[in-house]
Amino acid sequence: MKKILVTGASGLLGLNIAVEAAKDFEVYGVAHNNPVQSPDFTMLSGDLLAPGTIKQLFDQTQPDWVIHCAALTDLEVCETNPKLAEELNADLPGRMADEASRRGTRFVHISTDAVFDGQYGNYTEEDPPNPPNVYARTKLAGEQAVVAANPDAIVARVNFYGWSLSGQRSLGEFFFNNLQDGNQIKGFADVYFSTLLANDLALILVKMLESGLSGLNHVFSADVLSKYEFGVAIARRFGFDPDLIEPISVADSHLKASRSPNLSMRTAKLVQALGQPTPTISAGLDRFHKLYQQGYSKKLQTLLATVH
């Protein structure tokens, strides 16, 4: 059985990857904050920026594959602390990729659609990035560091939502929580994205590893919605009132970090390589709803509560 090391395993994507992959593989998760306990995978605690931690983790787990999710993802925090963003999003991925390369370990680096400025949309892997904020600039630098250190690595640009440890980490949860409570909320009507459910993304990443892919790949849904339309779709799936969501322009949001308006993505390269299309946003939302009905969101939240 192959062994997979997942960094950032208490985060939204890392945790869902660990849960999904543990059904078929021996999984080790590592997190600096919010370590979790699960009967399905082994959770380790460590500061990846501390000297010696990366080597120690590789020595301890001897992974066949590494999926590197750890990052500073809060756009506003990146703006106010660019040095930390540089360390976590640019320097760390290169060091992780280098260690994997020296050991012959397959490596996946999780990047982002935010490397584009969103002026056009329908982006392919060949389109030149133009990062609009500190988060995006450091994530692009991370891509470049990974490729330089480990040319055989997979660099996966993604956008995702799902159920998380805290229940408050994704846009999907934001809409669900507020709509369930009957709160009036706002949704950007002029910001478009091609988001995937984290569980579906996890399975695609594993298949990419199994298929021996490498290089830069766009891993997104097969279609696109505005964030307002996404919220309305969640309201309808769960039987909430869509009129609670007010469509607004991102220009009226007064956010520190600039947002890219059109992050619709092309996935033709990935679809051809895997021989199947990626899920639609509608299909992802159906599964998001089904997971909730099955108690998945509550199950994830109990993983933190078991820590002593």
Detailed description of the structure:
This protein has helices spanning 12-21, 53-61, 75-80, 82-103, 134-149, 171-180, 198-210, 227-238, 268-274, 281-293, 296-305; strands spanning 3-7, 26-31, 42-45, 65-68, 106-112, 154-158, 160-161, 185-188, 192-193, 196-197, 215-219, 225-226, 245-248, 262-263. The protein starts with a strand and ends with a helix. The model has no long low-confidence stretch (mean pLDDT 95). The relative contact order is 0.15. The chain has eleven helices and 14 strands. It has one domain (3-305): Rossmann fold, CATH 3.40.50. By secondary structure, the protein is of the alpha/beta class.
Helix content: 40-55%
CATH superfamily grouping: NAD(P)-binding Rossmann-like Domain
Provide mean pLDDT, rounded. Answer: 95
- How many domains? The number is 1
Instruction: Report the radius of gyration as a whole number of Å.
Output: 18 Å
Form type: globular
Low-pLDDT runs: none
Task: Report the end-to-end length measured between terminal Cα atoms.
Answer: 30 Å
Structural class: alpha/beta
Helix tally equals 11
Q: Any guess at the CATH architecture?
A: 3-Layer(aba) Sandwich
Main sheet characteristics? 7 strands, parallel
CATH topology: Rossmann fold
Itemize the secondary structure elements and their pairings.
Elements: E1 3-7, H1 12-21, E2 26-31, E3 42-45, H2 53-61, E4 65-68, H3 75-80, H4 82-103, E5 106-112, H5 134-149, E6 154-158, E7 160-161, H6 171-180, E8 185-188, E9 192-193, E10 196-197, H7 198-210, E11 215-219, E12 225-226, H8 227-238, E13 245-248, E14 262-263, H9 268-274, H10 281-293, H11 296-305
Parallel strand pairs: 1-2, 1-4, 2-3, 4-5, 5-6, 6-11, 7-10, 8-13, 9-14
Antiparallel strand pairs: 9-12
Helix pairs in contact: 1-7, 4-5, 6-8, 8-10
